[in-house]
Amino acid sequence: MTLDETDRALLQALALDADQSTARLGQKLGLSQPAAWRRIRRLQQAGVIAARRLDLDLEKLGFGVTVFLGIKLATKGRVSLEDFERAVSGIPEVQTVDHVLGLYDYRLRVVARDLADFERVLRRRIMTLPGVGDVEANVLLSEERRRGPL
User: Fold this and answer.
1) What domains can be seen in the chain, in order of their start residue?
2) pTM above the 0.70 mark?
């Protein structure tokens, strides 16, 4: 799919606030409401817009700690990647599971109420997963969200 400047401007506006009405988006971009709606629909059908999500404030929900874990699977047991992925996906505190290339096999984003809660999740849930070998933890101090290029 080829994107024109209006498509890119529409995507940038939606990235800032996906909850805007098509009338408001049209006003900003010099389009009618139906034209803005048609463009959004076309971008959704083409898979350019995969989903719209809520951006929750985890701290206000009681999750004050975010930790990134690097997980290296043990090679001795030859645990399948699918077994690990299926098991780790069942842990509610694990927000993302990224299969990566490099020193570690997986990168997890884990949220917890505090460090004691994170230690409980790490010891009782993550370290007991099939095939877990080396683990490295990095505690998130602050986060700056940057929009990708459009």
Assistant:
1) 5-45 (1.10.10.10), 65-139 (3.30.70.920)
2) yes
